[in-house]
Design brief:
The chain contains 4 helices and no strands. The chain is mainly alpha-helical.
């Protein structure tokens, strides 16, 4: 599968989540000290990506009942490149 590109991001879903939810947030928003992580530290980037994903999923699913709307929202989130967003947070912090 080839990757799409949307406004410099992997795909529309990644760009939209970055724009609508993550924009303006910092590493500190996720309890990460800039000195503890860099983009070459895969384990810490993966951990940050998981934290970002959990944060966004909590926002998106909060109060949404089971059904079509939740399924569509989760399908949208499944396409987000969480590592790309985590790496972007790290680069922006430098």
């Amino acid at each position: 599968m080839t990757k799409e590109s949307y406004n410099g991001w992997t795909n529309y879903e990644t760009w939209r989540i970055q724009l609508e939810v993550i924009d303006g947030m910092t590493l500190e928003s996720f309890g990460v000290d800039l000195h503890e992580v860099d983009t070459d530290d895969v384990v810490n980037v993966e951990s940050l990506a998981e934290d970002v994903e959990s944060y966004v999923e909590e926002i998106v699913t909060n109060g949404v009942p089971e059904g079509l709307a939740l399924n569509l929202a989760m399908s949208f989130l499944d396409r987000v490149d969480w590592m790309e967003i985590a790496e972007h947070l790290i680069v922006d912090a430098r």
